[in-house]
């Protein structure tokens, strides 16, 4: 079974063009065959399990078949000879099998042992069933063990419509999941599976224009169509001018900073190896209402070796919890309460009346006793005397109840 043959580069290029995973594909080569691809697929399904599709190509006087499987080809049972014999239209056709990835030599499956005649089906069944366990239970366990977990690895769907999830929220989760994949073809496949119209149409147009587009190209195209319209320079200005709001916790401000920094990194405005330092610097600069937290955490000493976002968030939240615990243990200051007994209530009313009377007796008419106008007194009055107006002012002052006491120290009528 050839793994480094001359046909391997052809198969790898074929997988890349059709966006197929090489680890889940095999290349079969034979002499020219004048039989339909549908008939070949039906015949192959009788001899190979887990087969999901076949692509055909005639090249260099040979018939090439690219087989795609629903699992890794290292788990597919194949003849040890490296040749696959298939009966097509009554005659036997021999295919040379070419693997496109290296086989894990340290793995041996029960199916391989059966294919080599080293293990019979009865031996496997007898050894597999534990003592005291019913047959249906064993069958259920076997069925559950074969369940696929591929659905849990799928990305969340994204359509790009206004009523759905925003691109920024979707791409944050999607990038984290895609980082777990090593194969570029698998990344592109998972992105396409998650997209719905009109977002799916963007990738269709991109593949038509650039068949060799990578997963990063996919995400950049979606960013242009549905992402933030701010440029990298605009996001950089926004990031460096961000400050803590009044009433906002430092951890909440830090999370808000990190969200802007992620966008800035995606736009190419911040190098990935400088993000930790940028985040710490702006957090110290923008924290306006919790400066003691910066001192307690000694963040200025960490500028040259800044912690990661998660490490910094952990430090900040822990300090917040400690400060909140100290505040909760402080005894509240006693607030004096007024005495509301009936006796004291009457007394306070009497005292209030005397106080009001005392205050009223010390009030003085604030007008000129010569001309009756406001803003000056008789000693500095240059106007003509107006006794009639002065008397009117005194009458109104008298009606206010302020005549008593005032007459003891002031004349009831102005002196000419």
Secondary-structure class: alpha+beta
Q: Helix amount, in percent? A: 40-55%
Low-confidence stretches: 148-152, 405-411
Cα-to-Cα separation, first versus last residue: 133 Å
Strand order of the largest sheet: 2-3-1-5-4
The tally of beta strands, per DSSP, is: 5
Main β-sheet: number of strands, strand sense, barrel status? 5 strands, antiparallel
Integer average pLDDT: 78
The oligomerization state is single chain
What series of H and E elements makes up the topology? HEHEEEEHHHHHHHHHHHHHHH
Radius of gyration: 44 Å
Shape: elongated
| DSSP helical segment count | 17
Please report which band the strand proportion falls in: under 5%, 5-15%, 15-25%, 25-35%, 35-45% or over 45%: 5-15%
Protein name: Paraneoplastic antigen Ma1 homolog
Organism: Acanthaster planci
Domain CCHC-type: 368-381
InterPro entries: PNMA, PNMA_C, Znf_CCHC, Znf_CCHC_sf
Description of the structure:
With 416 residues, this protein is an alpha+beta fold. Helices cover 47% and strands 9% of the residues. The chain has a 5-stranded antiparallel sheet with strand order 2-3-1-5-4. Helix 11 packs antiparallel against helix 12. About 3% of the residues have low confidence.
